[in-house]
Amino acid sequence: MLKKLLIVLTGLLFVGLFVSACSPSASELKESKPAYLEQPSETPPPAPTEKPTASKAPDFEAITMTGEKLSLSSFRGKIVILNFWATWCPPCRDEIPELNSFYEEYKNRVVFLGIEIMESREEVEQFLQEQSILYPIILDSEQKTSISNLYRISLVPTTYVIDEQGAIITVIMGSTTFESLSSYLP
Hints:
Number of helices: 6
Number of strands: 7
CATH class of the domain at 63-182: Alpha Beta
Strand content: 15-25%
Largest sheet: 5 strands, mixed
CATH architecture of the domain at 63-182: 3-Layer(aba) Sandwich
Shape: globular
């Protein structure tokens, strides 16, 4: 009995050593953080107007539900807000009044785009008959390249705030509010 216990404990010791040797250290985990999660450094950024490319928002071309052709890069010089959502998502539905209010208040200063991630045109049109959305809507399912894949969307709603040079300021995972979005404006 004692011999079996000793064998089991020795085996557990080897498994523990193997797992700890294969696991990343705390410094390796810190180094793998996405750029938008990093804390700002104490030194001021370099003088060029472009921010580091690690935080650049992926460019895309799209066509809105009304047929307007656009690209993210065409909005340089303006803050851009991309709100990824779905018709079946209760938090997405709940934040629409806040987003409508924000759009109405800031539509001359900010580009605001709603990106519906998966439904067909018919499903979204039916949804829009029940729920008024004032800002332009892009159907991700109708684009040549999936915008939600470019931005690695794993849950909705997710909102990206992009600065005038095309760099990601923040990513809001979950519902957002008028006040929260306003806080990112200069």
